[in-house]
Fold this protein.
Amino acid sequence: MNKLDAKLRTALDERRAQGLYRERKISSSPQGTDVVVAGRNLLSFCSNDYLGLAAHPDVIRSFKNAADRYGVGSGASHLVSGHSEAHHALEEELAAFTGRSRALLFSSGYMANLGVTGSLIGAGDHVFEDRLNHASLLDGGLFSGARFRRYPHLESDGLAEALMACESGKRKLIVSDGVFSMDGDMAPLADLSALAAAHNAILMIDDAHGFGCLGQDGGGIASHFREAGYDVNEHTLPVLVGTLGKAFGTAGAFVSGSNELIETLIQFCRPYIYTTAMPPAIAEATRCSLKILQTESWRREHLRDMVGRFRSHCQALGFHLIDSLTPIQALVLGDVDKTVEASRILQEDGIFVSAIRPPTVPNGTARLRFTFSAGHTEAQFQRLLSALEKIALPAEE
């Protein structure tokens, strides 16, 4: 073994000893509520396919028809020869869906967050991020070269203090998840917008887990707060990011905002300029899923019903759930070994739920992350509730 491999082996062995070693689980079925993982049939409660569109027959049909028309690959970046009619139509429809001037497609949410942050701020500027932001947002802030500050999770007062201490005359960017992926809770959007206005800062929200699930129209956190009476628009929330691989059921990401924002990204955003465009067939499939997302409100209603009953059942069993009204429900067990064992017990019972451990979540907050889909039937939901009793904590004497 060479010196490099010896050093790498040591680090891998340390991770195994800590109970934090990650292994990929091989699936041989479409995304859905019933999956085949490592050759075994399981009932899944760990997919981000919130609306059950990843294997929807109409979405699949749109993909196949577009593949016949456009082929499989896009062939180049958007600025060379890879920007198809399908891409352009999807961008226009996403702009209308979000109520913004324009939208711009990216190949992944990670690249969108890296690229947007780096295009808006740089050395000498300031970026403020929620401590529990997704890794792509945190990396975007770090890679931008701006002075990087993290404020306590959801604490607007902590952000206000950091903004007041910030050097004036520099560009300031506030960045937050809309719905936090490991906790399922929501950013205080109204407070963030007010602070951005008061301190002449730019507000950027990544609503990857909110689109499709929140708001009567599925418009995500922006719609949720508008329905509560807050003024959320292109001016009060200038940078809105979303991914297509979750509630939309396809792949890729988008940024929506003003014409000036989108043109700036087209001209200066390196991850956009130097990346091959997503396949046009993906864009066409997403156009189909966007129509379903907007017209079939029963999917969101079904999610809300399951989430409410799940939380009541967990409370009766004495579990600690993070406060969340979204399809992401985090059951915190704390101890890594206990969490891994609980995941194993559920899997033995045919329930597929991943154990989420540090460094993905803070130390002492290892959890089972349950995610619900509009595709879950009542029988499947009841099966989960029954299985939870097998991992219930013993009553205190």
About this structure: The longest strand covers residues 328-334.
